[in-house]
Amino acid sequence: MDITLFHASLLIGTGFLAGIINTLAGGGSNLTLPALMVMGMPAEVANATNRLGVVLQAITAVFGFKRHGKLELSDTGPIMVPTIVGGLAGAVAAAYAPSEWIKPLLLGTMLLMAFIILVKPAVVAPEPGTLARKVAETPSSWWGLGLAGFYGGFVQAGVGFVLLAALAGTLRYDLVRANALKMLCTLMFTVVALGLFIYEGLVLWVPGLILAAGTIVGTHLAVKFAIKATAKTLKWFLFLMTLCGCIAAMLN
C-alpha cells in the first residue's frame, strides 16, 4: 500500500490523540480505525493493523506507570489469566465474525459506560487510596475481566472503558492504578490478538508502525498527566471520552 504525506500525517496525528485518550480513559481506536480505513483498508485489515499501535503504546504506558510507582504487580497473575483467555477468544471471533457486528457492540458498550459514570460514578472512579481487592476474593472480577478481554480481542475500540469498569468497579483500584493495570491487560491480550492477525496475514506493517509512532508520543505525555491530575479531573475526562465514544460509534 502506497503511503502519501497526507496519510502519514493523518496516522501520526490520530495516533498521538489516541495515545492520550487510551492511556487516560479509552476509545482512541474510534479515531485510529477510521484513519486507517480512509486509506482504503477493509474493516478487518484496519482492525488488525490498529493492534500494532496499541501494543507499542501499551508498552510505553506500562513502563511509564511502573517508573512512577503506580503499577500494582501483586495480583497481576490472576488478573491476566481471564483477560488473556478472553482476548484470544475475542480475536478468533473477530477474525471470522461479520464486521457489521462491531458497531452495535461498540455503541452498546459506550452507552452503558456513560450511564454508569453519570448515575453511579464511584463504581468506576473509587477515591485515591481505596483498598483494592484481590481477584481470589472477588469471583465476579473473573467474569468482568474475561468479558473485557473478549471485547478487546474482538473490537479493541473502547476496551479501556470495559477494563476500567472491571478493575475499578469490582477490584476497587483508583483511576490512576486502574489505568496502569488497564494498559498492562491491554498489552497482554492485544499481543495474543496481534499474533493471530499476523498469522492470518491481516496486518499492514508500514501504516501500522507510522500510527504507532504517534501513539507512543501521546502515551508518554498522558502518563505524566495522569500522575499529576486529580481524581476529579480524571473522572471528568473519562466521562467526556465516553460521550465522545458514543457519538463516534453512532456516526461511523
UniProtKB/TrEMBL annotation:
Membrane topology: Multi-pass membrane protein
Superkingdom of the source species: Bacteria
This protein's UniProt keywords: Cell membrane, Membrane, Transmembrane, Transmembrane helix, Transport
Protein localization: Cell membrane
Predominant location category: membrane
Transmembrane segments: 6-27, 77-97, 104-123, 143-168, 180-199, 205-227, 234-251
Cellular component GO terms, alphabetical: plasma membrane
Keyword Transmembrane appears in the UniProt entry: yes
Family under the similarity heading: Belongs to the 4-toluene sulfonate uptake permease (TSUP) (TC 2.A.102) family.
UniProt name for this protein: Probable membrane transporter protein
